Write the structure tokens for this entry.
Amino acid sequence: FRVYFDSSACTGEEARRLAAEHEFQLGYLLEAFSLQHVDKIASYVYPDTETKRRLIGAGITEFAKPWNREIHITLQGVESSLRHELAHVVAAPFGVPLIRTSLSPGLIEGLAVAVEGTWGYRTLPQYAAALHRAELAPDIQQLMSVRGFAAQSSAISYVLAGALSRHLIDQYGMRPFLQAYRNGDYESAFGKPLPSLIAEWRSSLDSVTVDDQTRAAVDVFFRRPTVFTKVCVRLHARRVRQARQLLAERRYAEAGELYRTLLTTGGGYDASAGLLQALHRQQAYMQATDLYDSLLTHDPHPLRYLPLAITAGDAAWALGNPILARALYSQ
């Protein structure tokens, strides 16, 4: 590796640990890909999202450039993202010439998620089985196409592409998978067309147990309410960022007003969560608990708001209602 980092944010022993983590994750991937070595990789580790946004234009998003053998991540994202982004670079020799990756986003991200092995706190088959039983899984063949991956919720696309890829690697081996990765020809690589491979995978999910906690996790992670189509999504997203900035600057009343407007005109999880947080910071505890109750009462899938129960519980505690607070925390 050539690791580029901010020496004021990562010094001495921290820098040595950073280098060691790179080597450890690469060793894991070399074993997964059955490779002996790879060419040198450049890793740019930014001290924070603001510095990363200022230098390359992408703050939150961690990404790789396989054609340049580069990864770009934040220091905070090393633990969660390093292996995933490295996987894109390790797979580069098996991609299409010049761009050095697959033409299918489903195969690109599916491979990276598959070699990670897990997503969140459950296995990929557990999430995939739960998504199918909750009828949240889209057409998998379409998802694995050139354009279909981006048409779905990113979380659902990543998990299902990863689960299918993991199944194909486990059943047929890494070599045929990498053959399909290069040319998208499943029948030549696996001896079967993609629909048959998907049917095999779906059948394997029938034996996966899905408990109540996993079903609840699906609601939390994959049923986040979307922005209403009557507003410009880009404008809504920009105003959400403005509201977050107001919240960060402790201008809670202004943030609350903007979040309330966003919730009325566009909806979405971010607007709900932001308004709840702004109310709590203004010590409007009764309004905060009322908002949380309203979200749950008027939604057919109330568990998707479960993370907000923590803030609602804090508000209930501040109101002197420990019984309600305990109930919210216990969820």
User: Anything to note?
Assistant: The mean pLDDT is 93. The first strand starts at residue 2 and ends at 5. The longest helix spans residues 12-33. The radius of gyration is 22 Å.
